[in-house]
Amino acid sequence: MIGSVCGDIIGSRFEGEARHPKTRNFLLFDKKSRFTDDTVLTCAVADVLMNDLCYGETIRDYYLEYPDRGYGGSFKKWALSDQTSGYNSWGNGSAMRVSPIAFYCNSVDEVMEEAKKSAEVTHNHEEGVKGAQAIALATYLAWHGKGKQEIKEAIEALGYQTDIILTSEHLGFDCSCKETVPQAIYAFLYSEDFESAIRDAIMMGGDSDTIAAMSGSIAHAYYKDIPKEFVKECFKRMPDELIGIVCKFMIHYVDKDFLLENVPVLEEDEGGSDI
User: Fold this and answer.
1) What is the secondary structure of the chain as a DSSP string?
2) Which domain holds residue 132?
3) Is a pLDDT exceeding 60 seen at residue 270?
4) What is the CATH number of the domain that holds 259?
5) Tens digits of residue pLDDT in 215-260
6) Stated pTM of the model
């Protein structure tokens, strides 16, 4: 879960074609780095799992609490309506928020079913569901010690191609699962550690925060290590409520020592630094 949050915040200031860094050697955090809808809705999913809540109601509640975090137009229209079904979206909003499911569930079948359940309240198009299942499955397999080749084959069995040529030229802005899920998985598969996965995900350009959030989810599960300063920089940019959700979930389902290793920063440091 924390890998997804870190990817979102690091990628936030690069979203869009004009902001694409065109290199791996960019500043990870600066004053413009912020949490977006990816982090908000990842926390919403974690809350659902920890407290046996309803996905639709909880996702709406989190949107209303944090309404200015870069949500898509169709999602906002849905969130402000009384609609009880999804709006047939094939966008990556279903995949960006799914990472807690991989750490919470105990089998591949359970992961696939829960990912579908979490997606279809909004993204009930088959591509929206498949994208959520792919990121959840890759994260689950990585967390349970599977190698990159096995993860690659599992994702390709779902219908995604993961052989993408990564260059310094951006691939354009696209927020569909069909385009961004393979990009995120590619960035993980050819990474050396968590940081390199995030850098490659962002260097692809386009929907940088979401691609990095998805890749960060898998990379954290696989490498089982994120630099402590990354977590602290992210916490500097998040409200206490969301930090609390992240810490509670991490302690109970991922790493019981998480809070001891990542003590939230003091108020005087609020706003973050450049690293």
Assistant:
1) -HHHHHHHHHHGGG-SGGG---SS---S--TT----HHHHHHHHHHHHHHHT--HHHHHHHHHHHSTTS---HHHHHHHTS---S-----BTHHHHT-HHHHHH-SSHHHHHHHHHHHHHTT--SHHHHHHHHHHHHHHHHHHTT--HHHHHHHHHHTT--------SS------BHHHHHHHHHHHHHT-SSHHHHHHHHHHT-SSHHHHHHHHHHHHHHHH----HHHHHHHHHTS-HHHHHHHHHHHHHHT-TTHHHHSPPPPGGGTT----
2) 2-15+28-269
3) no
4) 1.10.4080.10
5) 999 999 999 999 999 999 999 999 999 999 999 999 999 999 887 6
6) 0.92
